[in-house]
Amino acid sequence: MHAMSTTIAAIATPLAPGAIGIVRISGPASLKIADAVYQGKPPLPSQRPGNTFVHCFIKSSKTGEIIDEAIMLIFRAPHSYTRQHVVEIQTHGGRIQSRRVLEAVLSAGAEEADPGEFTYRAFMNGRIDLIQAEAVLNLIMARSIESASSALGILSGDVSYEISKSYNILQEILTIIEGHLNLPDDETTGPSLAQADSLLLTAISSLNTILNKISRSALLREGVRVVLCGPINAGKSTIFNQLLGRDRAIVSNIPGTTRDVLEETLILDGIPVILIDTAGLGEVSSPV
Description:
Elements: E1 8-11, E2 20-26, H1 30-37, E3 38-39, E4 52-59, E5 66-75, E6 86-92, H2 95-107, E7 111-112, H3 117-124, H4 130-140, H5 145-155, H6 158-182, H7 193-222, E8 224-228, H8 236-244, E9 262-268, E10 271-277
Parallel strand pairs: 1-7, 8-10
Antiparallel strand pairs: 1-2, 2-6, 3-4, 4-5, 5-6, 9-10
């Protein structure tokens, strides 16, 4: 990762044919770099307020060549994803144009970002915590609506809130216990140990909520592996095909048709299931 004082840039959209391609810039020099590649009506991006956008053309800061037509979005620190100055350049999509715009930005003084560096900066600047940073990846990699919803819930801070709530309750319990240890019973004026017991039950309930959400998130992200194994010609490949809803494995009445391991993924109730078809157990002699 680069130093936080370095201004970084990267393509934020897939390098594939598409209507829109986005190049994102973050760091102290973001607005200066935006000025260098901006071709349009005044004022320059650095003179515009945050949370605004402007239609423009992107040019090479070296040659002045027009590269593409664009919409430029301006976010001033700390009101951005990274809590730094951020500029997003929305151009026509595709591998060529996105890369040309990025190269213009890099030539103007930015450094190409490492994978995940924008989220790293959001974490380091206190925009999100570590659990939310992991949720960003889970949301991007989600393979079902349920998985995406779970990741979005964590990203919105519901798990972080429960952790903070549990921590505060445990701190309160510790204070009550210390008060009873340091003072005689007849001089203790604060909450009773019975109240500490009640708080402990609340903390346990909150921690169980956290564990359930994290476990559910892990299940939706990683899925489960299901291996179909058994005797030769028992119908494992038939079940495999039926579960997938298509003919993926070769099926015949000849024993030993399946020789290699086949692996496919299907989604059941939002959970990725890695289904594995195996050869039958036992000796077989067949023309296959």
